[in-house]
Specification:
Strand order of the largest sheet: 1-2
Helix content: 55-70%
Order of helices and strands: HHHEHHEHHH
Strand content: under 5%
Structural class: mainly alpha
Number of helices: 8
Radius of gyration: 16 Å
Number of domains: 1
Number of strands: 2
Shape: globular
Length: about 190
C-alpha cells in the first residue's frame, strides 16, 4: 500500500508543479512537493535519512538544471531565481523524485546499469513532457535531450561513481545506499 501511495503522491506533485508552471501558478509545485514529502516522511520508518536525501536531491537538481539551462539545453519558466539558475519549481521536482528512491523505485537499488538506462530515457522524457505541457519557454532540441540524458554523469559529485564503475543516472540511490549507509529493508 505504501508503494501505491508513494507513486500517486509523486505523480500528483509532478503534475501540480509542471501544470502549475505552465498555467502561471509557479508556486503550486513549491507547495505540492513539500506536502508529498511530508506524507513520505510520515510513512517512512526512519524519516531523517529520507529528509537528508531530499536535501541532497535539491542541491543536485539545482546544480544539474542550472548547468543545463546555461548550456541552452532547455528553457523553463523562471521562478524565484534569475536565468540561468534553475527555477524553484524545478528544484522541487528533484525533491519529489527523491521521495520515490526507497519506495516505488526501491527495486533499482544496487542496479546501477539499469538505473542509468531508466534515467537516460526517463530524464529526457520528463523534461520533454514538461515542455509539451507548457512548463518551458521552448521545447528541448534533440541535442538538448541528449545532454539531459548524459549530463548528470558529468557533474563533479558523480565523478567518484564513474571511477568506481558505478555509472548511473540516479545518484540519489547511490547516495542513500553508500554514503548514508541506510538500507531500509530487503530489495524487492
Amino acid at each position: 500500500m505504501r508503494k501505491i501511495i508513494n507513486f500517486i503522491a509523486f505523480q500528483s506533485a509532478w503534475f501540480a508543479a509542471v501544470l502549475g508552471a505552465a498555467n502561471g501558478m509557479l508556486w503550486l509545485g513549491v507547495v505540492a512537493v513539500p506536502l508529498a514529502l511530508g506524507l513520505h516522511l510520515a510513512l517512512s520508518p526512519d524519516w531523517r535519512p529520507e529528509l537528508l536525501l531530499a536535501f541532497c536531491a535539491a542541491g543536485m537538481g539545482f546544480a544539474t538544471d542550472t548547468l543545463l539551462i546555461a548550456s541552452g539545453s532547455f528553457s523553463p519558466i523562471p521562478y524565484v531565481f534569475p536565468v540561468p539558475f534553475s527555477s524553484l519549481w524545478m528544484v522541487m521536482l528533484w525533491v519529489n523524485l527523491a521521495t520515490t528512491m526507497n519506495v516505488s523505485m526501491a527495486w533499482l537499488r544496487g542496479r546501477y546499469a539499469l538505473g542509468a538506462v531508466f534515467g537516460a530515457i526517463g530524464g529526457p522524457l520528463a523534461y520533454y513532457s514538461g515542455a509539451k505541457l507548457g512548463a518551458m519557454t521552448r521545447l528541448p532540441e534533440p541535442g538538448g535531450l541528449l545532454w539531459i540524458a548524459v549530463s548528470p554523469g558529468l557533474l563533479p559529485c558523480r565523478c567518484s561513481m564513474v571511477r568506481q564503475g558505478r555509472l548511473m543516472n540516479d545518484f540519489m540511490v547511490w547516495i542513500h545506499s553508500n554514503v548514508l549507509q541506510v538500507h531500509p529493508g530487503p530489495l524487492p
